[in-house]
């Protein structure tokens, strides 16, 4: 390393080495080695400026390696495997029957139209593209919903689902200090074994430092306290409805209850319409705030309306609701980072105030959101021919996943002579299926059968073709019966 690295830092006689971010790293970040950080710098003060000269060792020496992302780890291992029958069921993105990535035709058309029109690349306002914000709220709540007509929804374009959740988390932290968010167990991005304490994927010794839990880390990073409600019942590979209700009831009044609007990730297990009503009853009784993460609208069932039914039912009860949307899956706009955060308020005045504060939080975080995906969504929804085409393509994608789900169930049922009931596969919805396989069984799936998946037993049916269902069924049956 060159010895002439200069840095400008305010001269403070008592603290000549002013690399605050490194020296004073918070211990719970888990990536900063305090002992190693101050071995390398000599500082000379010239009036108001400190010249900091690095000698031999990088000033970033004390930063330890973060564990790899669990999903990318699965994909890397898949790439390195040369077996002809290998399958990548870790990926949370739609694949064709040939297992190739898919760009929707309607997106290609919208792209072409935008190109012909000659898009400018000016900044969007902080809240995003007005035409997008209008249609995204209409898609979620229904165009005729009174909350839209009464202007009671604060909608801000976010950086896809993740960024929209993060914005809402920052909002909760700022305006509801100390309020808790309740998160389903398990939830999105959480690949630890359900029965174990430490994370199997990122190998972090303690859960608070674990990187493999996106919902929880979003709230951790925003400084919002969270706890879990029971959701998955390993005995039935179904919903632990009683546990869920009991935990929501037991949460401190006024908590934010994070709900997956449809196609729960990672389990694929959704409450029935009757169960949704009971969940809404309890949330209402306890004065909690329902906070929906709806990343699969239209992609789960093929119908935008059916997949938004849970959100709309809460809104129809007159409840104030938060809802984060994503267009990664239903329009295949993964890399465009297009989504929104919606806050349904009880008055238009409150909605205007909430929106102003969301913008205030967004401005120093990322200033304003990207324009291209927003224009694609707005143009598709605003044009009835394109909108119909989008709906048809969503139905096609959801239909392919449903077909694969049925074929997998048929293959499991006909090949497995043990009498085991595999019908839970059919009860799940969306791109994921929880197989109920444990870590050792998942290891067998990968090591013996070249099937790549997360170690919690989740498989992405979007990465499966009809042609490979029988092979997968053989792998699951072998792992289930022959590995303890
Ligand atoms: C439940 C859930 N929420 C949010 C997201 C966010 O996705 P994105 O940030 O790509 O919109 C995902 C993506 O897999 C998800 O499964």
From TrEMBL:
Which chain regions cross the lipid bilayer? none
Sorted keywords for this record are: Aminotransferase, Pyridoxal phosphate, Transferase
Q: What is its EC number?
A: 2.6.1.1
Enumerate the InterPro entries for this protein: Aminotransferase_I/II_large, Asp_trans, NHTrfase_class1_PyrdxlP-BS, PyrdxlP-dep_Trfase, PyrdxlP-dep_Trfase_major, PyrdxlP-dep_Trfase_small
Instruction: Look up the domain of life of the source.
Output: Eukaryota
CDD domains to which the protein is assigned, alphabetical: AAT_like
Q: Where is the Aminotransferase class I/classII large domain?
A: 86-197, 214-476
Its needed co-factors are:
pyridoxal 5'-phosphate
Q: Which reaction does it catalyse?
A: L-aspartate + 2-oxoglutarate = oxaloacetate + L-glutamate
Checking PROSITE patterns in the record gives: AA_TRANSFER_CLASS_1
Q: Which family does it belong to?
A: Belongs to the class-I pyridoxal-phosphate-dependent aminotransferase family.
**In the UniProt entry for this protein, what further remark is given in the free-text comments?**
In eukaryotes there are cytoplasmic, mitochondrial and chloroplastic isozymes.
Complexes and interactors: Homodimer.
> What's this protein's name?
Aspartate aminotransferase
**Annotated organism of origin:** Hibiscus sabdariffa (roselle)
